[in-house]
Amino acid sequence: MKRKVRGRITLIGITVILSVLFFLPSTPFYAHLPAWWGKYLPSRGVTLGLDLQGGMHLVMEVEGAKTVEGGLAQSMGTLQRSMEEKKIVLTAIVRESQQLRVTFPEVHKQAMKELLADAYPFFTVTETKSVAGLSSPEKPVTTFLVSYKAGEVERLLDSATAQALETIRNRVDQFGVAEPLIQRQADNQILVQLPGVKDPKRAMELIGRTALLEFKLLDESHPVAHELPDRIGVGKEAEILATYQSKIPPDDEILFERISDQAGNVGGKQPYLVKKEAVLTGAMLSDARVSIGDFNTPYVSIEFDAAGAKAFEKITETHVQKRLAIVLDHTVYSAPVIQEKIAGGRAQISGTYTMDEANDLAIVLRAGALPAPVEIIQNVTVGPSLGQDSIDKGMTAGIVGILLIVAFMLIYYRLSGLLADLAMGLNIILLIGALAALNATLTLPGIAGIILTIGMAVDSNVLIFERIRDELRLGKPVRLAVDAGYDKAFSSILDSHVTTLITAFVLFLFGTGPIKGFAISLSLGVTINLFTSLVGTRVIFDGLLERKRLTRLSI
After folding, report:
1. Which of 111, 130, 221, 549 gives 20 to 30 Å between its CA and that of 459?
2. Which domain holds residue 147?
3. Which helix (H) or strand (E) holds 240?
4. Given 354, 381, 408, which residue is the final one in a domain?
5. Last residue of some domain: 363, 381, 399?
6. d(CA 278, CA 369)
């Protein structure tokens, strides 16, 4: 019996020491510990959640219409190549919002039907009238309207949302936010919580940027290219587009480059006439890093993979003395003249950036482009002062709850109530130690879960003490009454704790961030409560009964 008591006391002592060691990094005392402490002993404690330390809460939605348009744009290129392979002459192909208008000679109608049925089963095909001027009695043409089937639209949106989730996660990881919460909700929505973010505007721009990198040739041979002004004021883009849109070829478009000072302030824009079709995209990038150039100005150095390096070398070889625009999200970042063939797959994106802007640009290029634009439908910034107020109120509620429970147990169960209070203190120590060991994120609902487990910490002892009282009323000796009280209360305590654990598991499985925090603290508290109530108080009773032959028990 003595060995059992000593073993239990040793186990409790070890768990208390470990709990204190793991929780120390979460306290102000950790700053005064020697430098070697973090190398050999725990150095990460409890992390405060968004609602406690402040930060950003974003809900983003992948734009369904843009997803479909992007898919059609990709399919347009593959369809053209498929028609060339099948020797089907293409008269015209135009993307009209949610569909493709494909026109070809009528003699290829059957071959086109077979091609679409075999290679593109996810398309719905409708024959319609041809655009005037494309058809003639001598050379009749057929026009198909090609659009995605409903099931394919759902698949595209699901895939785009999953890809956007991973891209945003990669960007946030490189941005350096500790313990972010990034998860999918609803069909095409993404929840992003960034605790401790000091610059919400910068973070939002970084996360929400599409980051579609394209390399496009300038069309300097067309008269409009020489008519465009060298510089326009900010906000005059729509006016330029309205003036020249009807004059430019259908394969061209007008894009603008920012003209900024060294501080990053945009003082104007320069319009360019560029080819719509990109000769190379950022999909072939393997790396992007910030470098420092002449006059101590930052620029982004990019490197292509093997296929991209070969394509870039070919492009620069065949377009020497022509200008190549580097376009990100339909904005020109630079448009240098190709002086010679560039081998090795390296290039640079230069401009008047601040260091933060250059770093953010490198991050989004490394993480990859979003498959479709995302719209921020909810943006909440939580200040740290509000979080501190929540912590203070949570601490006050916890202390008041503990004091009331301690007083009740002492008054109602006397000396035995003191044992239950000690078990409750042990429960709190082990709980905060377990949260720190798991590096859990503590949220306001998590604090509520801790306060709830404080109440549950004495609930089990109440069941045990009432059973002991019943046994003492029957005239049993103290030793037998204590043993019977624990044995008879065991099944009730276990059943109540298991059902609570099941509830906590369901909350964790289906809940969002704050609900998960509540579920974690509740499940840990319930599990630890089983240990403290069945082992903690029992070992004290056993120790007392071994030393003294008690004939009465203060209960």
Report:
1. 549
2. 65-153
3. helix 237-244
4. 381
5. 381
6. 15
Quote the CA–CA distance of 13 and 201 in Å, as a whole number.
49
Higher-pLDDT residue of 146 and 402 is 146
On whether both 36 and 142 belong to a single domain, the answer is no
Mean pLDDT, to the nearest integer, of 258-277? Answer: 77
What is the rounded distance in angstroms from the CA atom of residue 529 to the CA atom of residue 489?
A: 14
Q: What mean pLDDT value characterizes the chain?
A: 81
User: pLDDT of 114-171, one tens digit each?
Assistant: 998 888 888 999 988 776 666 566 678 889 999 998 888 888 888 888 888 888 887 7
Residues 6+ apart with CB under 8 A from 305: 284, 285, 286, 345
Give me the number of domains the chain comprises: 3
The predicted model gives 20-34 an average pLDDT of: 80
- Please enumerate in sequence order all residues whose Cβ is within 8 A of that of 440, keeping only pairs 6 or more positions apart, or say none: 46, 47, 446, 517, 520, 521
Provide the CATH number for the domain around residue 9.
1.20.1640.10
- Give the model's pLDDT for residue 264: 54
* Spatial distance between the Cα atoms of 442 and 436, rounded to a whole number of angstroms: 10
SS3 labels along 302-368: EEECHHHHHHHHHHHHHCCCCEEEEEECCEEEECCECCCCCCCCEEEECCCCCHHHHHHHHHHHHHC
> CA-CA distance, 321 to 338, in Å (whole number)?
5
Here the CATH number for the domain that contains residue 337 is 3.30.1360.200
* % the chain with pLDDT above 70: 91
Identify whether residues 525 and 394 lie together within a single domain: yes
Q: Which of 461, 484, 458, 462 is nearest to 471 (CA)?
A: 484
Q: Which of these ranges, 44-53, 165-174, 430-439, has the smallest mean pLDDT? A: 44-53
User: In this structure, are 331 and 373 located in the same domain?
Assistant: yes
Q: What is the CATH number of the domain that holds 135?
A: 3.30.1360.100
Residues in the chain: 555
Q: How far apart are CA 305 and CA 366, in angstroms?
A: 12
Q: Is residue 405 part of a domain?
A: yes
Encoding tokens for residue 463? 């069941």
- Is 168 within the bounds of a domain? no
> In whole angstroms, how large is the CA radius of gyration of the chain?
35
**CA 369, chain centre distance (Å):** 15
